[in-house]
Design goal:
elongated, 7 helices, mainly alpha
């Protein structure tokens, strides 16, 4: 009987069809599309440092030295707002949301130091 139901949507050859055995999910199993799994694994494998611009790397290096935003702005000859924007981009690329527990600055710096 399941063969009839599964074969019916596939018979027109148009594609864009999925079939899920609800019993597997109801019994506690997990069903995920292989493309979703591939994308999740690819994102995890990416190194956030690789995605930083050269300016963001400079800012992160100065953060690792313990420098504050004002001092970073002076050293790089940019405005404090520009530094704030770069730091926000760094946090975003590291996946550090404002609601994360712990201090985001402290979380971002070790990744940089490990690669030095």
């Amino acid at each position: 009987m399941e063969q009839d139901y599964a074969g019916e949507p596939l018979s027109d050859g148009r594609g864009g069809v999925g079939y899920l055995l609800k019993d597997r999910v109801a019994e506690g199993g997990t069903v995920m599309d292989p493309e979703v799994v591939r994308q999740l694994l690819t994102r995890r494998a990416e190194d956030p440092l690789e995605s930083l611009t050269s300016r963001e790397l400079e800012v992160l290096a100065l953060m690792a030295e313990g420098r504050g935003n004002g001092e970073i702005a002076e050293l790089l000859f940019v405005t404090p707002n520009a530094v704030h924007k770069h730091i926000g981009n760094i946090f975003a690329k590291f996946g550090l949301a404002p609601t994360d527990s712990g201090h985001r600055r402290v979380c971002a710096v070790p990744a940089y130091l490990e690669r030095r």
